[in-house]
């Protein structure tokens, strides 16, 4: 029950990247166990099922890189926007006096 509450808190706090990484990690771990069980019965099916965790880990890596790049770009624009806003507010104060 605590795990469910943790995920709900992440969703409410808009921590999408953390939530997404937990979901991809859970998918990867679950499918590794499922592939292991199927490999005990039929080796080729077990090996074929290992593609799913590989895709999940690849998607997680791609999302981490994409989020990092997006955050980098947005933070740099935010800093420039804040600087422009501060300088324009200073000039507005001087001109109003």
How would you describe the overall organization of this protein?
With 97 residues, the chain is mainly alpha-helical. It has one domain (2-96). The chain is built from four helices and no strands. The protein has helices spanning 2-12, 16-41, 43-49, 51-96. α2 packs antiparallel against α4 (51-96). The protein is elongated and about 75 Å long.
In summary, what is this structure?
With about 100 residues, the chain is mainly alpha-helical. It has 4 helices and no strands. The longest helix is centred in the C-terminal third of the chain and has 46 residues, at about 50-95.
SSE blueprint:
Elements: H1 2-12, H2 16-41, H3 43-49, H4 51-96
Helix pairs in contact: 2-3, 2-4
Q: How would you describe this structure in keywords?
A:
97 residues, mainly alpha
SS summary, helix count: 4
Overall pLDDT, averaged?
78
**Unreliable runs:** none
Biggest beta-sheet profile: none
> Could you give the order of the helices and strands?
HHHH
> Approximately what portion of the residues adopt beta-strand conformation?
under 5%
- Class derived from helix and strand content: mainly alpha
User: Helical proportion?
Assistant: over 70%
Tally of structural domains: 1
Principal-axes shape call: elongated
How many strand units?
0
The Cα radius of gyration reads 23 Å
Beginning-to-end CA distance, first to last residue: 60 Å
């Amino acid at each position: 029950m605590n795990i469910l509450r943790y995920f709900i808190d992440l969703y409410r706090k808009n921590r999408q990247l953390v939530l997404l990484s937990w979901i991809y990690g859970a998918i990867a771990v679950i499918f590794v166990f499922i592939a292991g069980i199927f490999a005990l019965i039929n080796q080729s099916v077990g090996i074929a099922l290992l593609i799913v965790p590989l895709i999940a880990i690849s998607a997680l890596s791609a999302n981490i890189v994409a989020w990092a790049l997006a955050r980098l770009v947005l933070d740099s624009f935010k800093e420039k926007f804040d600087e422009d806003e501060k300088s324009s507010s200073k000039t507005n104060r001087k001109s109003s006096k």
